[in-house]
Amino acid sequence: MAGQICWNIENSWFNTYVYDKIAKDPAIISWMVGVSAVVSTLAAFLVGTWSDRIGKRKPFIAIGYICWGALTIAFGLAEFLPKDPLIVAVVFVVAADAVMSFFGSTGYDAGYNAWTTDISNASNRGKLGGAFAAMPVLATIFGAIVSGMIVDAFDFFPFFALMGGIVMLTGVFALFTLRDHSRLTARKHEGGYGAQFAEVFRIHTVLANKELFWVFIVNGVYFIGFNVYFPYITIYLNNYLNMDYAMAGTLQGVGLLAAIFLTIPVAKVINRGRIAPVIGYAIAANIAGLVLISMFSNRMVLLIGIFGAGIGYVLMVQTITAWIKNLYPEHQRGQFEGVKMVFAVCVPMVIGPLISGYFINRYGVHMEIDGVAGMVPTESLFIVSAVMTLLTLLPLIPAAKHAKKRLHAL
């Protein structure tokens, strides 16, 4: 939960903070999102391979979280930097976000995600996927409603200090309480760390895990569509629809909270192997929700739209989590978290915001906010995201065929 709160802050509030305090330029957000995605992926590869080699996840989780929280606090110092020349503040926020992402990926992706695979199995990963789907939603609710209130009342820096402190304390708690699974053993490649690191990039690894890589592609295409709109939804609600942070957060929070109740019945369906149909329903709900958001400004209809998009997100995360974890090679779980990061984070968080930046600059609205001119996203952004989400069906077809073949062979 602490990790998801911190990711929510980075993916949503960092963008809003930069837009408000640094410059109303979507290109800065695109750079932040893209660079941090590359760094996060690299960290997951490097540290995931390291954790596989030594057979331990705990040190990476604890140290990663402690540093992650400290750097979240440090990010808030950007508003105190001089804005002339602006490049100083821009370089600082991009670099600080990248370093923070390195430790976040160390603690959460390479450490914690691999640890949850170690302690679970095929019979309970539907429920585990439900937990993984619920946590970012709960973090978004906390980050939207509670964070919106804190930002409105005290401004951004106290907010970053409080949230970063919570993550640091979680890391300290893990240092003294978390235990690695007894079945986790060290796996050292005879050729050394370099050979073990490179092993996952070889073509035979892909051919030996065809279904897994198709699922990775499904994950990647879906989250490209997700990253077209999600980094900008608060900016859209706040500036284009003239809502305050608390109201924008409440709409997102209530809509997403309602969506997570579907994870309980869906877990049983996933455990029975009915994974591809669930993803199909998730895509349909997601697209319907985005279309509603783009067409209406009425708050009740917006809530329904956010609920639909939330259903899509929640079911996708739940289903993909279980599907991927069931396919990971047993002795390369940490390393394959890095592969997952390429498709779930790196590619989507580079391509998605680039698409967003193009459409905001071309079809957005030029506004002056607090005396500063900038481009504000419009409803067209959600239509573009819906179209990108629809493309998820293309890799889903071969992924489903491989899954059907595997399940029939059992």
From TrEMBL:
It comes from the Bacteria. PROSITE patterns: MFS. Gene3D superfamilies: MFS general substrate transporter like domains. Keywords: Membrane, Transmembrane, Transmembrane helix, Transport. Pfam families: MFS_1 (PF07690). It is a multi-pass membrane protein. The chain crosses the membrane at residues 28-48, 60-80, 86-108, 128-150, 156-178, 212-233, 245-266, 278-296, 302-320, 341-360, 380-400. The keyword Transport applies. The keyword Lyase does not apply. Residues 1-404 form the Major facilitator superfamily (MFS) profile domain. This is MFS transporter. It comes from Paenibacillus puldeungensis.
